[in-house]
Specification:
With 448 residues, this protein is an alpha/beta fold. The chain contains 18 helices and 12 strands. The two termini are 43 Å apart.
């Protein structure tokens, strides 16, 4: 069983605050409505009787019957009060429109502590009926004790009075209970979801669980997007929080490879829709802004979309280049509106992407391009399902795995990481994308 991190769960629970408030309001509102409009008002009143021992004149009778006023006798008398023998007589005498079982549910008998007194309480919709029923039960009970035990040792102390106040006015109590049930209910549901939620989260100790360092955390963009080209946040919104986190990723990569150096980077992900193309485009732009001559290549030959992000033609791209003479690479390179940044789109969808990427021609092409550019970033295909990125990872200096916060499954990331390990890929680390800005306190000092 996986150990539960209470602090992590409390952070996770924040997502359920609004649902919890909504459920609480609905629960309390429904309770108020029920108590004030549906629940029938009930009135409760009581009569008390004393179980007295016999006088000296009846000592012989008392001795013969060995009547002791104790808890056992009180319990016996309590059962007699609610017996069919007594209640049926009460119903017949008062012509009540009910039966013994229904009336019994509205009758309670309690013993007053350390006394020989029984308290008989009756609850009814009519205050008058409640009082009449309670008094009648006491009278019938007293008469039946004489018939059963041949003793007259029950006397009424206080007769039931007509109650003025409703006895079941528990709106405040019921509302508090409803509130607590709503809070604990939502908390329990959120805990179950949290326990079985296998997605990567910002607060997780990913480095310990996956064995890979986090080299960048990209917060969710809060900038408006009017077109696909607006995905290049670093270019259009250079002072935004997202831009600063991209620059932080660039810096981390430079420091992590200060000794070995790197020129080629593969950006991949476990699954589609993790944001790898977004990260690739912005990371390449960030390097270009740092006066690096950058080439961004779309090697996701199946579903690559860099041509859409940069609004360039996709007729001739990387797949076409791999079937052409690599010395003709220049005609496949597209200029972008970003200074120092060129792009090779994916080109037409080939029938054999994996074969093209694993070819010697691809290896020679990358070697030739490295001589022309400072940085080459490859936007690869997702790792799970195809071997394209596993192949490309053996041809580059560093590989980045993009995962989406609260979306990518840990098991899925494990599978992708294992696929890269099998080919001895040099994985620089994980880029955590789509981190909630409110939880990413580390980046809270950046301005907009």
């Amino acid at each position: 069983m996986e150990e539960i991190d209470i602090k992590d769960f409390l952070r996770y629970l924040k997502k359920f605050i609004i649902p919890m408030i909504v459920v609480a309001i609905l629960a309390v509102g429904a309770t108020f409505f029920y108590d004030l409009n549906i629940k029938k008002p009930m009135y409760k009143t009581s009569t008390t009787v004393v179980l007295a021992q016999q006088t000296a004149e009846n000592t012989s009778a008392s001795t013969l019957n060995d009547i002791n006023i104790n808890q056992k006798l009180v319990t016996t008398y309590s059962e007699i009060v609610k017996s069919k023998l007594v209640l049926q007589q009460v119903i017949d005498s008062l012509s009540l429109d009910t039966d013994v079982d229904s009336l019994s549910k509205h009758v309670t008998v309690t013993a007053v502590d350390d006394t020989e007194i029984l308290k008989i309480s009756v609850e009814d919709e009519s205050p008058e009926n409640a009082a009449k029923t309670a008094n009648k039960i006491a009278d019938v009970f007293s008469a039946e004790i004489v018939n059963i035990y041949k003793l007259n040792n029950v006397s009424t102390i206080d007769h039931a009075q007509i109650p003025e106040n409703v006895s079941n006015n528990t709106t405040i109590r019921d509302s508090l209970i409803a509130l607590l049930i709503a809070i604990f209910g939502v908390t329990a549901i959120s805990f179950i979801i949290y326990y079985f939620d296998d997605t990567i989260k910002y607060s997780d100790d990913i480095e310990a669980k996956i064995g890979l360092p986090i080299v960048g955390k990209i917060v969710k963009s809060d900038t408006p997007r009017k077109a696909a080209v607006d995905e290049i946040i670093v270019e259009h919104y250079p002072k935004s929080v997202v831009s600063e986190t991209i620059k932080g990723l660039r810096t981390n990569l430079q420091f992590s490879s200060v000794d070995s150096g790197f020129k080629t980077i593969l950006v991949t992900s476990a699954n589609a829709a993790e944001g790898k193309s977004f990260v690739s485009a912005n990371l390449a732009t960030s390097f270009a802004q740092a006066n690096k001559k950058v080439l961004l290549i779309d090697c996701d030959l199946r579903k690559g979309r860099l041509h859409k992000i940069f609004n360039i033609a996709n007729l001739n791209g990387y797949s076409n280049l791999l079937t052409d003479n690599i010395e003709n690479y220049k005609k496949y390179i597209k200029k972008t509106h970003v200074k120092n940044l060129n792009v090779i789109p994916r080109g037409v969808f080939p029938p054999n992407p994996s074969e093209l990427l694993s070819s010697n021609k691809n290896r020679e092409l990358i070697k030739a391009l490295k001589a022309k550019y400072d940085i080459i970033i490859f936007d690869g295909a997702p790792c799970n399902g195809v071997t394209d990125s596993a192949i490309m990872s053996t041809l580059v200096d560093e590989t980045l795995i993009v995962v989406r916060d609260n979306s990518t499954k840990k098991a899925t990331l494990d599978t992708a990481n294992d696929a890269l390990k099998k080919v001895n890929a040099r994985v620089a680390g994980i880029v955590l994308n789509g981190v909630n800005r409110k939880t990413a306190r580390y980046y809270s000092y950046y301005g907009d």
